[in-house]
Amino acid sequence: MEKNGFFRFRLLFLSAFSLLFLCLEMFFSSQVEAAHQTDFENALKIQSIRAEGFMMANISLPEGLPGSVVASPSRMSPNYFYHWTRDSALTMMTVLAIHDRSSDQEKKHRLRQILKDYVLFSRKTQEAQGPVGGPGEVRFNLDGSSDYSDWARPQNDGAALRALILTRFANVLLSLGEQEFVLNHIYRPYLPAYTVAKVDLEYVAHHCMEPSYDAWEELFGQHFFHRILQRRALLEGAVLADSLNDPLAAQFYRRQARALEPEINAHYDTDRGYLVATLFESGGIMHKNLHLDSVVILGALVAQGADDFYSVTDDRVLATVFELMRTFKELYPINASGDGIAIGRYPEDHYDGVHSGRVGNPWFLTTHAFAELFHRAANNFTEKGEITISKVNLKFFQTLGIDVRSESLPLKLSANSKEFDQIVNELRIQGDGFFKRSLRHMNQESGVMSEQLNRDTGIMQGARDLTWSYASFIDAYLSRPQANTR
Ligand code: NOJ
Ligand code: NOJ
Known about the structure:
It is a single chain. By secondary structure, the protein is mostly helical. It is built from 14 helices and 11 strands. A 3-stranded antiparallel β-sheet has the order 3-4-7. The N and C termini lie far apart (67 Å). The structure holds 1-deoxynojirimycin (NOJ) (2 copies). Residues 216-218, 351, 356 line the site of one 1-deoxynojirimycin.
């Protein structure tokens, strides 16, 4: 009896002890995990501050006119010491995003001044003589004169991007009562146009059906990226035109935007199951077989606006994200270890950052775009409170660990379901994976980033200090809910 009691006591003691041990272990491992998460959050925050500094350092260099943006300070191998219309417009979108988030009035004023300088510099570039001249021209010296080197021209995404950022900037200025600057430099309802956004919008409206070179400056044809941006620029431009008493222009811009929609829809290839980047290719470097390209994701991110047209949660966009991730994961040896997938431009890429005809690599800016897409998708779903899994996006959701049978599709998940939470959570985790990848390959001491990272070694290569690498990091950073406390 007594012996029995002793055994029972021992058993009880042992199980209590192991339970305690288990709890302690769980407590400490969650502490370790929390510490890792804090380290990661800090690293991101620090990098976002550094990236802002590096990006700003490439704007209005002492060697250039105010408002010029150098793509990279590298003047040799490669020479990126130019103001590209595309890179600078994207950079200014980031500057405006920082402006909008900031509550520091002095800083906001400074950022608006930079944007105004950019407006005036842009006008100079629009007026410059050049190989093609006008808004289809590609890149400029820092004094505003055209670059005459043998290059892929025209590229028609630049005007759309610039119209979009300047339309948004005009709205900010109008809300502050600065109508004069808007009418004198950004949009005056007058033809022939001589204010920057009006010139760009007229150009976009008249030329959006024509082919041009792609954003990677290689392929001549019709591009998803260009078209989706042209559409958005025209729609937002139309709203501005209306508010500035230019109703006929507004009508014309809207009509052209609508005409682009079927053209954009034609980029979804049902057989391949993704959005093809280019249709009707007819010149340049024609080595793409798949036409699977991260530029489609960049387009969906930048062209996001009031409607849901190819938004970050569109099922065709998510299907494309899936194909790109799968492809790059296998293609780049560095993706075999470490967190997150390093993403490149497109699988057949042969540009190594200096020469073409070599081996292409992952890029920082495309990897950041994926981080941004995952977080913005999580934000979107949370706002809507609903996720629909369809035949088109099924594979994407499967990579998030969702197990659904195709017979039950389409399947609607609502905000209070277990699967919904799992998806949002996994989007955040995988989104952060792309950041971890970028943090791992940038300069560990300074946070400096170049254009590319070697696919075998992960070591940086290509243009050093690429402005777009920094701007894209900041954009992605701002898409995390935690950045609200910035
Ligand atoms: C330089 C361009 O900027 C780059 O995007 C392109 O891949 C190579 N030239 C190929 O010629
Ligand atoms: C090459 C990229 O392909 C192109 O998009 C970019 O404009 C230039 N480099 C300058 O950064």
